[in-house]
Amino acid sequence: MRTLHISLLFLLVITTGCNTVSADSLKIALLSDIHFLSPKLYDSGEAFTTYEQVSGRQFDDQEMVLEQVWSILRRERPDLLLISGDLTHHGERQSHLDLVTDLLSLEKEGVRVLVVPGNHDINIPNAVAYRGDKKLPVESVTKDEFVALYESFGYGEALYRDEASLSYVASLDDQHWLLCFDSNRYEEHVNGSITAGRIKEQTREWAISVLQEADDKGITVLGMMHHGLVEHMPYQSDFFPAYLVAEWAHHAAWLAEAGMPLIFTGHFHSNDVTRFDAPSGKSIYDLETASLAQYPYAWRMMTLKEGSLTVESRFVKQLDGKINLEEEAHKRLEMVTRRVAEHRLSEMGVPIPEELMPLLTDLIVKLNMLHVKGDEKADPEMLFALRLFASYMGNEFETLDFSFDFPPDDNNLVIRWGKGNVEE
Question: DSSP string covering 143-189, please?
Answer without folding.
Answer: HHHHHHHTGGGTGGG-SEE-TTSS-EEEE-SSSEEEEE-----GGG-
